[in-house]
Amino acid sequence: MLNIVLVEPEIPQNAGNIARTCACTGARLHLVEPMGFRPTEKNLKRAGCDYWNEVDIVRWPCVEAFLEAHGDGELHLFTGQGARGYRDVAYGADAFLLFGRESRGLDQGLIDRYADVCVRIPMRTGARSLNLSNAVAIAAYEALAQQGFPTLL
Question: In sequence order, what are the residues at sequence separation of 6 or more whose Cβ sits closer than 8 angstroms to the Cβ of residue 14?
Fold first, then answer.
């Protein structure tokens, strides 16, 4: 199962859009705290997401807890600092696609620690970043395309 990992997400609407992508693709969603919002029913309804009940969600108290459990797994860290493009790597069925917070991405220490598995989505020079939910959708569908869209119509 494809795994989408949001490290310290800040905006509930982005998390809602990403949950919808996970629901539509069958991906598992990992939420790594601290988050910039509380995942309460009220906040989720405000984010317009009625898909939360259809998503396998795993919450982690911090990035180190997540890495302790999955650090030896197939990780792909999405960052503008990645040396390789997201289409230049192979994604296995149980890959973990990690994305950082909206305001500043993944922490530099994490990028340095996992530099060999950092990938980037190409953008024009000077562009800071894509919207988080758009970046997740691009990456998830590339990974699933490489796998032949298992279980999808």
Answer: 102, 131, 132, 133
Domain assignment of residue 66, yes or no: yes
3-state helix, strand, coil in the chain (%, to 5): 40, 20, 45
Q: What is the pLDDT of residue 126?
A: 87
User: For the purposes of burial, counting CB atoms within 10 Å of the CB of 113, is it exposed (0-12), middle (13-18) or buried (19 or more)?
Assistant: middle
- The answer to whether residue 152 is domain-embedded is no
d(CA 95, CA 138): 15
Summarize pLDDT for 62-80 with one digit per residue, the tens. Answer: 999 999 999 999 999 999 9
Tally of domains within the chain: 1
Query: How far is it, in rounded angstroms, from Cα 48 to Cα 90?
Result: 33
Query: What is the span of the domain harbouring residue 139?
Result: 3-146
Residues 6+ apart with CB under 8 A from 15: 6, 9, 31, 35, 37, 39, 47, 49
Where the chain has pLDDT below 50, the residues are none
